[in-house]
Amino acid sequence: MYEERIKRTELQQKIISADQAATLFKDQMVVASSGFTKAGDSKAVLKALAASAPANPLKITLLTGASLGHDTDGALAEAGILHKRMPFQVDPALRKKINSGDVLFVDQHLGESAELINEKIIPRVDIAVIEALMIEADGSIVPTTSVGNSAAFAAAADKIIVEINMSVPLSVYGVHDIFSTGVWPHKRIIPITDAGSRIGQPAIPVDPEKIVAIVLTDTTDSPASINERDEKTSAIAAHLLEFFSHEIKKGRLPHSLRPLQSGIGKVANAVLEGFIDGDFHHLTMYSEVIQDSAFNLIDAGKLDFASASSITVSQACYNRVFSNFEKYKPHIILRPQDISNAAEVIRRLGIISINTAIECDIYGNVNSTHIGGTAMMNGIGGSNDFARNAYLSIFVTQSSSKAGGISHIVPMASHIDNTEHDVDIIVTENGLADLRGLAPRERARLIISNCAHASYKDELNNYFTEACKRGGQTPHLLQEALSWHSRFNENGTMLKTVHV
Amino acid sequence: MYEERIKRTELQQKIISADQAATLFKDQMVVASSGFTKAGDSKAVLKALAASAPANPLKITLLTGASLGHDTDGALAEAGILHKRMPFQVDPALRKKINSGDVLFVDQHLGESAELINEKIIPRVDIAVIEALMIEADGSIVPTTSVGNSAAFAAAADKIIVEINMSVPLSVYGVHDIFSTGVWPHKRIIPITDAGSRIGQPAIPVDPEKIVAIVLTDTTDSPASINERDEKTSAIAAHLLEFFSHEIKKGRLPHSLRPLQSGIGKVANAVLEGFIDGDFHHLTMYSEVIQDSAFNLIDAGKLDFASASSITVSQACYNRVFSNFEKYKPHIILRPQDISNAAEVIRRLGIISINTAIECDIYGNVNSTHIGGTAMMNGIGGSNDFARNAYLSIFVTQSSSKAGGISHIVPMASHIDNTEHDVDIIVTENGLADLRGLAPRERARLIISNCAHASYKDELNNYFTEACKRGGQTPHLLQEALSWHSRFNENGTMLKTVHV
Q1: Do residue B442 and residue A414 have CB atoms under 8 angstroms apart?
Q2: pLDDT band at B355, cuts 50/70/90?
Q3: Using CA atoms, how far apart are residues B335 and B343, in angstroms rounded to an integer?
Q4: Is B288 among the residues known to form the active site?
Q5: pLDDT of residue B399
Q6: Of B190, B217, B244, at which residue does a domain stop?
Q7: Looking at the domain assignment, is residue A33 inside a domain?
Q8: CA nearest to A284, candidates A387, A163, A195
Q9: What would the 3-class secondary structure string for chain A be?
Q10: Neighboring chain A residues of B382 at a CB cutoff of 8 Å
Q11: pLDDT score at B498
């Protein structure tokens, strides 16, 4: 069966086991792997590398598209193999090693993460591991459920190990659109003018001489966890849908809105699901990842087209989509992440961007990455690729969590990934603050009034009032600005008086 | 003489005095004005409006390209006319009113500031005041020494007042390149592929019916102050030039480097002047503003082409350039600020961006706007338009100031405009930190070691060491993170022990 997936027949003799492939890695190598939002990642070779650690102790720098699935990052971290990791991760075991300082993590804009390699800031990639649907007769690699940085990795790597994933149906062929801008001084215009623009090729061009090994796998992607709507996410979605309806009434948005981007998670799914019932038609997406909700919208006849760098769905949705891929293929396209997240395209298409904040401050600065200002959660991902250049940059968060002990609206964000200059709308279950055209003092009043949790409103208002007495464009009491986070570290709650 | 500058002859009867023009403004109007880095601003009408305040008290929202010259912002602020001001300013009197909360200031990315109007987030512009070289037969307005947001303002305004500046020589005609992307869903590709690409028209298209008044002026732009090199700026420039030479040797940059952007000020001028002596050739600029140093580089045969949105030079340079403009015209182009600062073009051209920081923290976050976390200095300007999408994003600052009482390298920046994700290089007179590909803990060691002032190194190292004991991707001691700023507010110095 593998023969039809390795059309360059001479490469069929390169098939080896994952354990054999693991022996190709040496100490201090720079390794790159396919994988974006757990989709299209290495299923066998990286895991085998982790397992080989006792016999073959080494340290590598690992670059990916974004997160890996199957606990691979955790296995590598716990095996002590990772010296440095970039540009994104979501693994609890790896996170622990990052925060203890054992693994160096470079938290990068996903749309820019290939640049260090393309521009030779990282001078070489020793081995790239790329999951593929098939290899074409000219050696080109057809990706599976994500494109990520695989094209950049394949171009830069000295050696390529291909994982042919036999479980991904061949009907996936043709969903990818591989386009490279090239490098300076011959960087090309990205000629995308709508979400569905097809500008490239169905496969990643590869020098077949660089393919040193092929490993056959049949493991599907780690499924996305199913996030049922709850009261808070439903309320956030309702505020956003009401806002969109209001903008339609004002004549600033059509019923098809503008191309949508949405981050991963509960709220994003709840908002997108909300479009099924609302008076919205002919929606499009220009995003990083296509999730369950997008396929539900396609099935409901609401979403015309979705462009992204990966498909990350629940097991049930995976089964539905990949058993009948020809139905969905006309509606979707998978692009390299420097194209899905390109500033140029995001600005031109006028994206409506919806991402999750860890916390927002009263002036509209957003922390997307750090707990208590110090500990890494996942990374900035593509949030600022979109927020920085979107037509509408929306951040959603619950107003409080941990039984009310954490306020997600704080006097000063303890880490800032998306600055006040890049944040248009903040939404919590309490309400929505439209910050466009507002000065910081106006924003503070609106965010506190519309978004903060009732338990924290008085203290936020007091902070703001006292700070205003001291003056400034962005009034702050520096000695108290981060005291809520300190209080949480000491007392386990941001509340001044603990309510029993 | 004015007849040759008003080629649509019927408009010649619209000439009135500035005082008469001032009577056209009403309370609560949204007013837009030309002017970018003090160049091409309204010389007469806004000043007359300020003078009319006692007789005609009103409040307006004022939008510009960037800063105005001739203390106009100060006059308007002190006259109590400004309700809201965006997107940038540099005026001491206005700054005072902003920080006292009397004037609302919206601090915006300059490349995005036209968007609120184009997209009707600000639903109307009542009057636009635009300085012009001349009006063409079809009513088109030819700008003077800047383009700024004038094209967007002219398109959106109900009424236009044109200030014909008789002092600007007609030889300036042809230096402007007016291009509009249009608005969604028909936004166009910006087809600039090198700094010199000419893609538009020499004049701003205008419906002549909207021109309600013409005022004649003959005042030249406020001159830029001459910033002589000093020991610190020379040292910063030397570190940067050495870095560029190193990158050339590594094969990552050619002797022509890549298109340069540089902010306004001493250091930028010192760096650019440094190119006169170095082994650099066929340089180009793709920047916001063309300063003295650019003309010196053109004269020295080092700079082939400079693209920007304005020309802001010293009086001596102004006299030299504008008395012989035909000599310089083939080497320069002036664009609308949403084109000079376009993410799309900055990324495509691979810009080397050099901007000034107010302070940097040990992890590479940059404060570009606020003193002590609260008081506005000037605004973010175009710094993040460039830093966010540049090939190389460089921030320069002195390591300390106020007789050593302020460290410009701090544990945590008190306000963040350019995040760690967008900052590649930090330079002080002590040295340069190349942060590319480094994790936060690596960055901290390098920034403290290479950039911090000797008086603060121990305390920064102690902070970092203690913070690392608590762990985290970005180790911080939240209770001490902003204590240096608090200490300065209390003691007038960030030093723990005051050295007498």
Answers
A1: no
A2: very high
A3: 14
A4: yes
A5: 98
A6: B217
A7: yes
A8: A195
A9: CHHHHECCHHHHHHECCHHHHHCCCCCCCEEEECCECCECCCCCHHHHHHHCCCCCCCCEEEECCCCCCCCHHHHHHHCCCEEEEECCCCCHHHHHHHHCCCCEECCCCHHHCCHHHHCCCCCCEEEEEEEECEECCCCCEECCCECECHHHHHHHEEEEEEEEECCCCHHHCCCECECCCCCCCCCCCCCCCCCCCCCCECCECCCHHHEEEEEEECCCCCCCCCCCCCHHHHHHHHHHHHHHHHHHHCCCCCCCCCCEEECCCHHHHHHHHHCCCCCCCCEEEECCEECHHHHHHHHCCCEEEEEECEECCCHHHHHHHHCCHHHHHHHEEECEHHHHCCHHHHHHHCCEEEEECCEEECCCCEECCEECCCEECCCCCCHHHHHHHCCEEEEECCCEECCCCEECEECCCCCCCECHHHCCEEEECCEEEECCCCCHHHHHHHHHHHCCCHHHHHHHHHHHHHHHHHCCCCCCCCCCCCHHHHHHHHHCCCCCCCCC
A10: none
A11: 54
Q: Which helix (H) or strand (E) holds B125?
A: strand B125-132
pLDDT, averaged per 10 consecutive residues of chain A (500 residues), comes to 95 98 98 98 98 95 97 98 98 98 98 94 96 98 98 98 98 98 93 97 98 98 86 93 96 96 84 87 97 95 98 96 98 98 97 97 98 97 98 97 97 98 98 98 98 98 98 97 96 78
Tell whether the model's pLDDT for residue B54 goes beyond 70: yes
pLDDT for residue A267: 80
At B77-103, the pLDDT tens digits run 999 999 999 999 999 999 999 999 999
Predicted local distance difference test score (pLDDT) of residue B33: 98
Q: Which of B413, B471, B476 is nearest to A478 (CA)?
A: B413
Question: B481 and A486: CB-CB below 8 Å?
Answer: no
Cα(B402)–Cα(B482) distance, rounded to whole angstroms? Answer: 19
**Structural domain ending residue among the three candidates A184, A217, A250:** A217
Residues A287 and A187 in one domain: no
Q: Is B69 annotated as a binding residue?
A: no
Verify that A272 and A206 share a domain, yes or no: no
Distance from CA of B91 to the nearest CA of A (A): 14
ipTM of the complex: 0.97
Residue A274 placed within a domain: yes
pLDDT at B88: 98
- Does the residue B98 lie in any domain? yes
Nearest in space to B47 (alpha carbons), one of B27, B26, B17? B17
For range B329-356, the mean pLDDT: 98
For chain A, how long is the longest CA-to-CA vector? 76
Q: In this model, does residue B409 exceed pLDDT 90?
A: yes
**pTM value?**
0.97
Residue of B nearest to A423 (CA): B108
CB distance B218 to B406 below 8 Å: no
Show the domain range for A17. Answer: 2-217
| Per-residue confidence band for B268, with pLDDT thresholds at 50, 70 and 90 | confident
Question: Do A272 and A311 belong together in one domain?
Answer: yes
Mean pLDDT score of chain B, rounded to an integer? 96
Q: Distance, in angstroms, between B459 CA and closest chain A CA? A: 19
Q: Which residues of A are annotated as a binding site?
A: 263-267, 358, 378, 382, 402
Q: Which of B117, B120, B419, B425 has the highest number of chain A CBs within 10 A, making it the mutation to test binding with A?
A: B419
Determine, yes or no, domain membership for A226: no
CB atoms within 10 A of CB B209: 9
Amino acid in the structure at residue A312: T
Please identify which of the residues B288, B359, B429, B459 carries the catalytic annotation. Answer: B288
A200 and A278 part of one domain: no
Torsion angle in degrees (nearest 10) through CA of A17, A20, A26, A27: 90
Q: Does residue A479 sit at the B interface (CB-CB below 8 Å)?
A: yes
Same domain, B39 and B135: yes
Compare all CA atoms of chain A with the CA of B389 and give the residue at the minimum distance.
A343
